[in-house]
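Now for one protein, fold included:
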Amino acid sequence: MKNQYVGDIGDYGKYSLLRFLAQQGIRIGVNWYLTENDRSEDGKFIKYLENDSEKIYDQDVFWALKKIVDEHDKDHRKVRMIQDIELIPKTVFFDEPLDETQKSPMERAWKRRIWFEDSQAALAEAELIFADPDNGISYTKTSRKKGSEKYILPEEAAQYYYSGKDVVYYCHKGRRSSDKWNLAKAKIIEYICDARLLALTFHRGTQRSYIFVVHPERIEMYESLLQGFLSTSWGKSEVFTNETVKQYKTDKTEPDLCRRWAMIDSFQKAFPTKQEKETALTRMTNEQIDKLIEASMIVQGKIFCASFKGTGFAAPTIGTLHPKGATLIYNDDGTVTVVSPSDLEERSGNNSQ
């Protein structure tokens, strides 16, 4: 999202959809995926606001956007204006810009990691996360690449989902064939193995689809809510339509393994070399490292991550006493504990009693 887009025809449909869901009691969190304005013509589709007949779809949203556009030119509109007028009731927002220019791949990945974690904290009270990047979702870019700031990454959608949130993001069909478009809509299931998918498509201006990634236990609720939205003027006039999304699973992997894989996959893509992993781990807190240790599928990965915890002593190799005096203990739940010499002595004493 760019500030210059505020008031565009796409905004009219988007805010009406989110407003409807919020009015039905869904607590929404918006991550704007905010990027800097550019000199493109994007955001110029505001002629609809000169036609009062357009207000039949949603009068409140129509007049709110008209007021913003009438009072501010494209270069001075801000997403904060949408936040300030509480157009989407009881919604929480994350509007920190995602700027990945003029940085090395490693720094882009690290900055984005911090930015994303900040978004999770800001939107912690939300039930449904709406991600609003410039260009939808990308399955080919990583956080290391220039231009990735214009996309939500699938591993980010997965991390929102596995923190207990439902997720909705938009994407464009573009020039894809019908077969490729059907695959693109459903591809997120490769990252979130137990999700259920729904989609609504907006047919004004540039066609865009809103992909809902929903927990199984809430799918019936969202089906009912979206059907309710389609019973409004938006659906009756077919400006919004329901779009079929193929429901499939790539394998029989358990959701917990998918959750763990999503976290490790995100770390591996961001920091692919050993040196970069080491640099990233030295910047992370013990709590962040513990999450990676818990998610790791192999013991060597757990040991590698544990060696960077700020314990005051280094992690040992398997089954040996480290020169600095630390010992590694494998817990029944698969985690690894690094024990200091004093703690080890205390444990030994308790065992001998």
Q: What stands out?
A: The CA atoms of residues 325 and 342 lie 9 Å apart. Confidence is low (pLDDT under 50) at residues 312-324.
